Amino acid sequence: MLQNQGREMMIVTSGAVAFGKQRLRHEILLSQSVRQALHSGQNQLKDMSLPVLEARACAAAGQSGLMALYEAMFTQYSTCTAQVLVTNLDFHDDQKRQNLNSTLQELLRMNIVPIINTNDAVVPPPEPNSDLQGVNVISIKDNDSLAARLAVEMKADLLIALSDVEGLYNSPPGTDDAKLIDIFYPGDQLSITYGTKSRVGIGGMEAKVKAAIWALQGGTSVVIANGTHPKVTGHVITDIVEGKKVGTFFSEIKPAGPSVEQQTEMARNSGRSLASLHPDQRSEIICHLAELLTERKEDILAANKVDMDQAVCAGHLPPAMLKRLSLSPAKLNSLAIGLRQIAVLAQDSVGRVLRRTRVAHNLELEQITIPIGVLLVIFEARPDCLPQVSALAIASGNALLLKGGKEAANTNRVLHQITQEALTMHGVREAVQLVSTREEVEDLCRLDKMIDLIIPRGSSKLVRDIQRAAKGIPVLGHSEGICHVYVDADASVDKVVKIVRDSKCDYPAACNAMETLLIHRDLLRTPLFDQIIDMLRNERVKIYAGPRFASYLTFSPSEAKSLRVEYGDLECCMEVVDSMQEAVDHIHKYGSSHTDVIVTENESTAEQFLQQLDSACVFWNASSRFADGYRFGLGAEVGISTARIHARGPVGLEGLLTTKWVLRGNGHTAADFSENGTMKYLHENLPVGQSLPGQRDSN
Fold this sequence. Notes:
Layout: E1 11-12, H1 16-39, H2 55-75, E2 81-86, H3 89-92, H4 94-109, E3 113-118, H5 143-153, E4 158-163, E5 183-184, H6 204-217, E6 221-226, H7 236-241, E7 248-250, H8 260-276, H9 279-295, H10 297-314, H11 319-325, H12 329-345, E8 353-360, E9 363-371, E10 374-379, H13 385-396, E11 399-404, H14 409-424, E12 432-434, H15 441-444, E13 453-457, H16 460-469, E14 483-487, H17 493-505, E15 514-520, H18 527-538, E16 542-545, H19 547-552, E17 571-577, H20 580-590, E18 595-599, H21 603-612, E19 617-620, E20 639-641, E21 649-651, E22 657-664, E23 684-685
């Protein structure tokens, strides 16, 4: 509990009137039933009517029950509570106000939680048209205004107003286009349309907002959130105190840039324009971006040097991450070449006909490719990812929201500016957005109504965190890259040494680097085995022995703690298997379905390996490092997917497209094809390249 963490808490409550009304009705009903049973008989009980109950009497009867409830709940946490009843006059009389302040301060000092309510047994009914009056005076007519008045009086740091909705919406919740406002500024008040008041409350959301603004002007931060069905972790108050994005936060200062929700909306709108461009225009944008990478090379490298210097000084990035963060002229040239490949592929992407069917006479059906929608790509210290993913999004007509690691903030900013400059040539500048605010990944994953696909690029922890947080949004990616190389008994010496060295040592931090080397048992204590060991030692690769490998050796390397480890460095596990089938079984059990390799001269063994293994990438006599969009000829990739639906393996342009069905008819109805109908289905497959009568260019 926050109280036990040393935080001072006060609760402003309602419910005394409702509590007392229920209690008094029960008492009156019981009393009437007894009297009528004695004088009139049982047959008249059904004709009893309850009198209208006066609110002040209900409050008096309900206060004790309400406090008993709070006492029972807080006693479970060994926390003491105290009841404080106030009225408007207690704040207008200086002596009473001072006494109230002193009492509350003393209760807080003793770690007692004050339960505060208006003294409804003596106060007059609230005036319907009374309102908040200026900054220094507030008319207490409900618990919202009372909470605001107390928050300012006690100089509270935070006021949390709980409601039965998620927060403040721009129009009544449940209506079309109603959007939750994450951050509300007093100047935006006129843009809000309020709904009706709740069944039991007297203020409604409008009263909450007015009270919140008054408290904000008095120096207290305010959040309005859902107290009935709290989201995020299920503990709405602690989530708010911990800074999580819950409900509506009231702020007096409006940031200069758009919110992430506004950025997403801008990207979606501009993305639709991008998708409607002619393929030549999308290709021109990508080619221009490739040119700008070369032309602005000095600016990019200067920004990257700042990021590198800061990362080195901070000392928290491992060498592998530093290598990913670093850009060079060669890297930029390679990026430009990859982008030009994507520009060529963009010519035949959006609007491509995959299938054409004549359903019936004058009823033609097409399946065509379309963009997925809005992509959210979250990447760590790898700035080269930004132009690659941007080019793929442009080629596929998708809107793009980018969230880069803070380690590459300067480089990402320059690369994003260049990307938007390229997009400007055809009026779709806002289609690619860079999130520069301090949005947490969890908060971005909550935008399930605005984002269609999340693609994480980074550590296995990042991917797992996103997969857990992304409720309702598909996540494309892999959580681990545990890649295997299996050396068969019929392997060539020269090929084995080359492939193992390249798979492990070319770029150990890559997700397609070898992590486990499987050796056929017959190769132990052979010249080939010795050459493999010598090569790994010369490359300074630390070897961990699997349990079977360790059992064959008198003096073995350190035993591997697990056979399911992604080392990401010059380290690997070595294990022994009896056959190709045992290698396949081992990979299925301990691998991550990323990339796995067999090295053998036996074609039959190789084909069985390729067919039986169900990893995303399966290679024969080739390095695992070929599992890459650029090396596959895809131009670039947004990531490597180990999922079993949609895209799998290196995900390039094709993986960012989905399809829609287009049906062209001439007044056809389903009834025409019923038993007594006049038409029959044909379902003829038509050539994809054949033009249909009257068909317009889809672009």
